[in-house]
Amino acid sequence: MIQRRTEIALERWLPPAATAPARLHEAMRYSVLGGGKRMRPLLCHAAGEVLGADPQYADVAACAVELIHAYSLVHDDMPCMDNDVLRRGRPTCHVEFGEATALLVGDALQTLAFQLLAEQPAAPDARRQLAMVTLLATAAGSRGMAGGQAIDLAAVGMALSVEELEFMHIHKTGALIRAAVLLGAHAGAADADALQSLGHYASRAGLLFQVVDDILDAEGSTVTLGKTAGKDAAQDKPTYVSMLGLARAKELAARLRGEAHGALDACAHDTSRLHDLTDYIVDRSF
Prior knowledge:
Structural class: mainly alpha
Strand content: under 5%
Strand order of the largest sheet: 1-2
Distance between the termini: 24 Å
Helix content: over 70%
Radius of gyration: 18 Å
Number of helices: 15
Largest sheet: 2 strands, antiparallel
């Protein structure tokens, strides 16, 4: 089971809680271990499987992208961002450990992700592994996730067009989803045609993930989500639900699901596990 495999790898690579500075390391482990669906590692391993990646290479790529994701959640929950108090069914990092420690947790998780990609074998050759470092850095930076978050913060209370909303989420959510898929591909025998098909798939899957998240925020409960439900509407954030309405947002999710499956059908390799994960992205909710 990939989730369990990822948990064991993260447990191994995170600094021990008793190692100084103990409180920082305890908070890092609190923020990463024992929760989450591990969707990005699942996508990473599934893409690696498509191209015959060594599972140990895929472990490194999967953990690196998951550490970036975890750092983003810690910072996203802080008072200067979304100011949320619940994540994965328990108090957020800044509530449990204080804002200063939470800030350092995010910083340390980000750097640990790149340490893993730099020092652990993650690809068949050094050139490809260097490309993986660049890929993840771009996905996490101002032209990816961090840039998308900046757009999101600036958009509070504004009326965006559908195109502007899509641009924001291609960066904020989609960039790391795409990185997870392509990192897995690079861990294997990533030929140009397969990378093109998987890249197109990942762009559709990333948007699909966000549309479903918006629907969950509108329809789900705090208990089932493990985080505060309805916070997007409460903070007057533009979402696919607020822009399109619930019914049309679900229609968009169905269309993106079909486009993701279509992109996988264009790949010359066995993509059955990615097909299953595409359905899981949607069926986890409605």
